[in-house]
Write a structure and sequence with these properties.
The complex is a heterodimer of chains A (357) and B (771). With 357 residues, chain A is mainly beta. Chain A is 6% helix and 32% strand. Chain B has a domain of 101 residues: Immunoglobulin-like. Chain B contains 6 helices and 47 strands. In chain B, a hairpin with a 4-residue loop joins β43 and β44. The two termini of chain B are 15 Å apart. At the A-B interface, α1 of A face β18, β19, β23, β24 and β47 of B.
Chain lengths: 357, 771
């Protein structure tokens, strides 16, 4: 072989290798025809609450870390901001100034259904000091604790006194109650805050959920927050139980066990196993509806093992039939938990459809 | 001829210089005839050098095509006869006589030049250090693409794979940052993981790899604590023109190609080369997330070598560009761009770019005066971009989070000068300096990083022969660092920042060598360990500006005993080492997450910080042997025991065993070599003290690796082909068991297994060269 041929051979080899192709072959999945959808961008740390008005098809976003207490405007109920782990303990001291520590106290959280009879403050009394855990910020940093006492309460205003546990930053404020359902108050900023929009049917919000055993069951070995009473934030869809929103649930697999095993039968079911298309107004009645705030709740979302991978199964085969405050009927199903601009968790997307017959 | 692939570099250069000198001496009166043949095959050796002993001007004669040289000597002269790949022989030659000389094959590589550790180039058998050499023949036979492939079946060495950080080395049970990586003696800067990615050193331009275990801190300063790996690049001689190209394919999906062109003139040689390597990635589970991520590398290198009187001035530059993609698993998500339910993954594009440049001036200034000046720079830059990939509709967009994208760079400048005065076989004195300037910048470096970490050292050594068989070399380095009090090194409790080493070589007639060494090494915390800041949704890994330097102590001894029975030569090399490192720097898991800064999510999955561990101990015993039957058969079975402990393990020792067998059989009739590379990696444990005081142990199970290959030249050596099978036992992921939380195997996350290899593959490598 002469030199020219040899060089030619080299070049051929070069061309052959440089053109070695790199494959990127995405597996084509079934695309599902979906109707109107909304994505509630709560953020991966659930730092926003998203209020949904189905008849307007609108979303209203509020920062979670803006309030701790919500006073019922036409009643005596007090809600706490369970979206950032606000909790309440009742100290044994009966004098505000004597309260210095929460040692040994058990904190209570609002129940998930929004029932004002079972909030952390349920049964509160005037001039009884309470300790409020201000919860956490969006990075999980504890925001501290305050002792809080309601000194007077009427149909139009609430007088409140509060301070740090060591007595610092003592404040008192008279909160005039608003026209809507609740008046929201920030103990951190010592002011009223606007939170809820005028009309809403569902709010996508974090809720505080206990995982692990209750500490009481463990006796002496209990380490709250470590081996028992571990409280986590989980996304939930809470209906406006205060304004007559009702929900009927169609879960074709409600008898299957729900757990975090990716291989579990329920976790194998898909959107095509649902009855979304066929359900009508008559089904709302035959299924039976409930006014509970957590009728939808967390039932559409299940984290799968290993939890560290952050993979969630969304039960898109469950159809929620929602009667809104205006008496319209909607079908709602959740499609995904991952979404938004960066396709992250904490961005639930649901489909909704007005039921006309 | 395989020798061509084995012995190059120094020897060919010397030979060619001699050839020039030799021709002028060929004419004369009273011809003396010398015939040189090989001892086993009785083949004439063409170009064997015959040089008078003790002559300052190294002029001599070369044998011709019949293995014959005619000498014009006037009086009986002591001559040294040498030939590449054969042991030297010294004989008295009288004028007018005809003499036949048989040279024995150097199956054990005793006469090969080594440069690592020694202040001036020497041979394997004369070096004060046990230098392990992995030469071009091994690289070819293994079908080795990168340094990781070459090191895989060596005793006392482990390679560990991380999907993002690449392949890391563990030597004597001590991981990457404590292994000094050099290319032609110039330190390479480590990557973002604080470790060197062996996958970024390509073998296409490598002549050989030299490995010295134990500290070489007097020579190379910081980091050379566990050992040193020196990559010697290819060298070309004068008046040589060579075009070399090779292509490599491996069934896992590797397609590599390289091209090198070298041209030599009388006093100058220039070589340039380039390569493209493509790896398609591999996932043992079939998931989209690969534990071996796909990458494409482009490499370029150039080297200009000029001879100025007796000195060589070399300017070299090499570059690497690597594009890799770390794929994530696609999960169900709603795509707000297409308004469709889809499968979406997050992918990271990782761009890496390396630059190594050097100017060296090296050689004998005059008889007894050797000079080596090294000036080099090594730069590493890595950028990462996070993309969102819809795998159903094949849509891709950049993440809108600023923290998901960054570029970080690390740079090291090295200036080293070494001067050696004295007889090669007599007392000689070495003096030298070294400055190492290190900096880092970019997204993953704390804004608090105040400038550079610079280190300056002065070193000296004296080699003293005691009698004809013993050599002793005490050596010292005085070191100063701008960001630490180097007095922590505390030499002999004097509070001085001096590192000592003592080396001893007993050599007996080329049959036995015994080496003893004591060395103190140290490692200053790297810029990364001080100022690293990797904070995102899943990671909180930060440096610690309070770190103390590591100080290590190593005592080792080895013997090399050789014996020949006819054509069979064998060598047996037992060796033992003890080492201790005080203040070893390690990444520690942060268990109490409430101590994290306010802006960091308290549920971040990975939270780590660099800390000093009071002490770390390891000892080991190795027994390696080598059997050679002329040039036909060469087998090296070995056994190793490694035990590790330290304050973190309550002084419990964790043992690990290794067995290896590397070798070849040469079918002379077929001109084909059959190669085998086997290693048994016993289970190895990592340990760490948990926050509650208990010891967590994480154990990687044992596994075997076996590679086989055939190599054969065609068309008069122009084409050289190697075909083979890698990882015949089909090892992929090896299980991890235990409660530990850190160490060798865990950088970024916790998995129940560790990727060791990508399973059984077949490869072919074709090398084509034109001279």
């Amino acid at each position: 072989m002469n030199l020219r041929k040899q060089i030619y051979l080299c070049l051929m080899l070069a061309v052959a290798l440089f053109t070695g192709c790199s494959e990127d072959d995405p597996n084509p999945g079934d695309s599902i025809q979906v109707g109107a959808t909304l994505t509630a961008e709560m953020g991966s740390s659930l730092s926003k609450q998203i209020y949904v008005d189905l008849s307007e098809g609108s979303l209203y976003s509020v920062d979670v870390n803006t309030w701790e207490l919500a006073f019922e405007n036409n009643g005596s109920g007090i809600r706490t901001n369970t979206a950032k782990k606000v909790a309440v303990a009742t100290p044994t001291e009966i004098e505000f100034d004597k309260v210095e520590s929460d040692e040994g106290l058990v904190y209570k959280y609002d129940s998930e259904d929004g029932d004002l009879a079972t909030t952390a403050f349920a049964g509160w009394q005037v001039n009884q000091p309470y300790i409020v855990d201000l919860g956490v910020d969006e990075n999980g940093n504890a925001l501290g604790k305050k002792k809080v006492m309601i000194t007077a309460s009427s149909a139009t205003e609430v007088s409140i006194q509060y301070a740090d546990l060591d007595g610092e930053n003592a404040k008192s404020n008279v909160i005039s109650l608003d026209a809507g359902d609740f008046t929201f108050f920030s103990l951190m900023d010592d002011k009223k805050v606007n939170v809820e929009p005028e009309n809403w049917d569902i709010v996508l919000s974090g809720v505080t959920v206990r995982t692990g055993a209750p500490c009481a069951a463990l006796g002496g070995g209990a380490q709250p927050g470590i081996n028992c009473d571990i409280y986590r934030l989980t996304a939930s869809a809470i209906t406006n139980s205060y304004n007559g929103v009702e929900v009927a649930v169609d879960d074709p697999f409600k008898d299957l066990e729900q757990n975090d095993d990716p291989e579990a039968e329920k976790n194998q079911k898909s959107i095509s196993d649902g009855n979304f298309e066929s359900l009508n107004k008559a089904a709302f009645n035959s299924l039976g509806s409930t006014p509970a705030g957590d009728a939808i709740g967390r039932s559409w979302l299940q984290i799968l093992q290993p939890h560290s991978s952050g993979i969630y199964k969304v039960y898109d085969f469950i159809t929620y039939m929602v009667k809104d405050q205006d008496g319209n009927y909607y079908k709602v199903r959740f499609l995904a938990y991952k979404g938004g601009n960066n396709a992250e968790n904490g961005n639930p997307t649901f489909e909704y459809k007005l039921i006309t017959e | 001829m395989f020798n061509k692939y084995i012995y190059k570099g120094w020897y060919s250069l010397i030979l060619i210089i001699m050839a020039e000198m030799g021709t002028t001496n060929l004419l004369g009166q009273g011809m003396t005839i010398v015939n040189v043949v090989s001892a086993t095959e009785k083949d004439p050796l063409i170009g064997a050098a015959i040089i008078p002993v003790g002559q300052s001007d190294p002029a001599g004669w070369l044998t011709d095509i019949n293995g014959t040289a005619q000498l014009d000597i006037q009086k009986p002269t002591q001559m040294e006869i040498s030939y590449v790949g054969f042991l030297k022989s010294t004989i008295q030659i009288a004028p007018g006589e005809t003499i036949n000389i048989e040279l024995k094959e150097d199956e054990l590589g005793l006469e090969e030049v080594v440069v690592t550790g020694a202040f001036a180039p020497t041979t394997s058998s004369r070096s004060l250090y046990t230098v392990k050499k992995l030469d071009a023949a091994v690289i070819e036979a293994r079908g080795a693409v990168n340094l990781g492939d070459v090191l895989q079946t060596q005793l006392n060495l482990k390679t560990i794979q991380d999907d993002v950080l690449g392949t890391r080395v563990v030597m004597q049970g001590i991981s990457g940052p404590n292994v000094k990586m050099l290319i032609d003696g110039i330190p390479l800067v480590n990557g973002t993981g604080g470790e060197f990615d062996l996958g970024q050193i390509n073998m296409n331009n490598v002549e050989r790899v030299e490995i010295v275990e134990g500290p070489l801190s007097v020579q190379y300063g910081t980091n050379a604590l566990a050992g040193t790996i020196n990559i010697i690049t290819k060298d070309y001689g004068p008046d040589e023109f060579k075009v070399n190209t090779s292509a490599y394919y491996e069934t896992v999906g590797q397609y590599n190609f390289d091209l090198a062109i070298a041209k030599g003139w009388e006093k100058t040689s220039l070589s340039i080369g380039g390569a493209r390597n493509q790896f398609d990635g591999y996932s043992s589970t079939g998931e989209r997330k690969e534990n071996w991520i796909p990458k494409v590398q482009y490499l370029a290198n150039a080297k200009l070598k000029t001879r100025i009187k007796t000195l060589n001035l070399t300017t070299a530059i090499d570059r690497l560009w690597q594009n890799a993609t770390s794929h994530g698993n696609a999960t169900s998500a709603f795509n707000n761009r297409t308004n469709k339910l889809s499968e979406i993954a997050t992918d990271n594009d990782i761009h890496t770019n390396r630059l190594n440049g050097a100017v060296t001036l090296e050689g004998k200034l005059a008889e007894k005066h050797y000079l080596n000046l090294v000036n080099g720079v090594s730069k590493f830059e890595q950028g990462s971009q996070k993309y969102i990939q819809d795998v159903v509709d094949d849509l891709r967009w950049l993440s809108s989070e600023v923290e998901d994208h960054d570029t970080t760079s690390f740079t090291t400048w090295t200036f080293r000068g070494t001067y050696v005065y004295g007889e090669e076989e007599g007392v000689h004195v070495t003096a030298g300096y070294e400055a190492s300037l290190n900096s880092a910048e970019g997204g993953r470096i704390s804004a608090d990083a105040d400038g550079n970490v610079n280190e300056y050292g002065l070193f000296t050594a004296v080699e003293i022969p005691v009698g004809s068989r013993l050599k002793i070399q005490p050596a010292l380095r005085y070191t100063f660092n701008n960001s630490y009090d180097t007095k922590e090194i505390n030499f002999l409790d004097t509070g001085l920042p001096i590192l000592p080493s003592l080396n001893l070589l007993y050599a007996n007639e080329k049959k036995l060598e015994v080496r003893l060494s004591y060395g103190q090494g140290y490692r200053t915390p790297s810029v990364r360990e001080l100022y690293y800041e990797f904070i995102d949704a899943n990671h909180y890994i930060v440096g610690n500006s309070e770190l103390q330097p590591e100080v290590g102590y190593n005592l080792s001894g080895s013997a090399n005993l050789r014996k020949s029975y006819g054509r069979l030569t064998f060598a047996i090399t037992p060796s033992v080492f003890f080492s201790r490192i005080d203040n070893k720097i390690d990444l520690i898991q942060i268990i109490d997450r409430s101590t994290l800064p306010k802006e960091v999510p308290k549920n971040v999955p990975v939270a780590r910080v660099y800390e000093n561990i009071p002490n770390f101990k390891s000892y080991g015993f190795n027994l390696s042997t080598q059997f050679a039957w002329s040039n036909k058969i060469n087998f090296s079975p070995g056994f190793g025991l490694l035990a590790r402990s330290g304050s973190e393990a309550d002084d419990n020792f964790y043992n690990s065993y290794e067995v290896n067998l590397n070798g070849y059989y040469f079918f002379k009739k077929l001109d084909t070599r059959f190669n085998i590379f086997y290693k048994y990696n016993g289970q190895i444990s990592e340990f760490a003290r948990n926050q509650d005081g208990s010891i967590g142990v994480l154990t990687l199970a044992d596994y075997h690796t076996l590679d086989l290959s055939l190599s054969k030249p065609f068309w008069g050596d122009r084409l050289f082909t190697t075909v083979g099978a890698k990882n015949i036992f089909n090892v992929t992921d090896i299980s991890l068991q235990g409660e530990g939380s850190k160490g060798l195997v865990l950088q970024t996350g916790r998995e129940a297994f560790y990727p060791i290899s990508w399973g059984r593959t077949f490869f072919i490598k074709i090398n084509y060269s034109i001279k």
